[in-house]
Amino acid sequence: MKNKIITLIITAVFFGCADQLDIAPVNSVESSSALKTSKDVEALLVGAYALLGDGDVLGGNMQRDAELIGDDGEMFWDGTFVDPGQIFIKKLLITNGQAELTWLEAYETINAANTVLNNLNVVVSTKKDKVEGEAKFIRALTHFELVRVYAKTYTDGNPANNPGIPLALTPDNLEPLNRSTVQQVYTQIIQDLTDAVNLLPETNGFFATTYTASAILSRVYLMQNDYAKARDAAHRVIASGKYSLLSDYANNFNNSSNGSSNATAEDVFSIQVTNQAGINNMNTFFASSDFGGRGDIYVEPAHLALYDPADERLALFYDDERTGKWNNQFGNVNIVRLSEMYLTRAEGNFREGTALGQAPLDDINFIRNRAGLTTPLASVTIDDILLERHLELAFEGHLIHDIKRTQRSVGALPYNDPSLVFPIPNRERLINSGLVQNE
Q1: Cα–Cα distance measured from residue 86 to residue 418, given in angstroms and rounded to the nearest whole number
Q2: How many domains does the chain have?
Q3: Backbone φ and ψ of 268, nearest 5°
Q4: Is 386 part of any domain?
Q5: pLDDT (tens digit, 9 = 90+) per residue, 89-142?
Q6: CA 49 to CA 271: how far, in whole Å?
Q7: Which one, of 261, 211, 257, lies nearest residue 237 by Cα?
Q8: Whole-structure pTM over 0.85, yes or no?
Q9: Which residues, at least 6 apart from 432, have a Cβ–Cβ distance to it below 8 Å?
């Protein structure tokens, strides 16, 4: 692992953060002293962000796969890669290479965050809270993405009994880790994110902030159907005043960071990509070859038919079969946009019969108005809210998770069908026989 630490520190320098962290290249550091200073640990933290943005984690493939496995006739996989093809037809083998790569890279990310947390003693006091908060944020977000993919959804049966994923809380644990329960995993995620909310600053360049942690907390609570807490966490982000909806929906996408902050006022968190570092695999698979992609994924007429003809979001599609959200191969990968927080607050308020911040109808009309639908709805139903969420966040990696938490079907498959859960990689089970396979 020490050699990997050096690699990550070097990676951090080329991730575009050397100026902000005042870190000089450290490729000559001996492995025995890789984490002797505060700057070393800070550099490793930046390396953890780089791992989080790996193509097999949140650099695109996890979002792509959430769309593929949740699809019911609104998109089509036309690529030659076998592994995403299995995901699209909901017939994953235990040897699926994507399931293995996502697992490996995600736990590598968690291990880097754990290594940072294990070396907080050398971090200068003025930065310790922020470093701890960022590492816990990364650990929580990665565990969250894993448990949503490799385990039953939280509301399927008893989460206290259902096997979740291994909880990795210490670096380089040589003992094999078995699966914690879904409940145990969510409890740890919420604890880490709550800590991050309290430790992180309100502004932090393009790294995680207290509001980024609140935004992910809102997702966690939404997956638990804890609508009041999801509403409150989303409202905290909105009420902060740190973010605002862009007047033009299309301007949310295909942006590059300026090196010191998120690319737009609507970005709550995004994976940074430049022409020197990072990867945007959403571009790889969704964009046509004219925009640097493979063009493996087509949008079907069934999806386009869901939009009102006056909806400006419809104009973002091109060739009548492709989304234009991912046309910049060096563009950032959006993880959380402010519009999601409005949609979550609207849903939470509606289900709880409350009007925190705004009434659900007002929040939905606010989102629709930005899309050019200037005639407001006179009333709103839960189906209206969920449809608006589907259209606003289309092809951004939310599909299967929204389907599961609302217990809807994917074609003939119920939300809790085993074929909608990734298998535990066979490679991992050969190493650790205690890892129980999914159904």
Answers
A1: 14
A2: 1
A3: -90, -35
A4: no
A5: 999 999 999 999 999 999 999 999 999 999 999 999 999 999 999 999 999 999
A6: 8
A7: 211
A8: yes
A9: 176, 177, 178
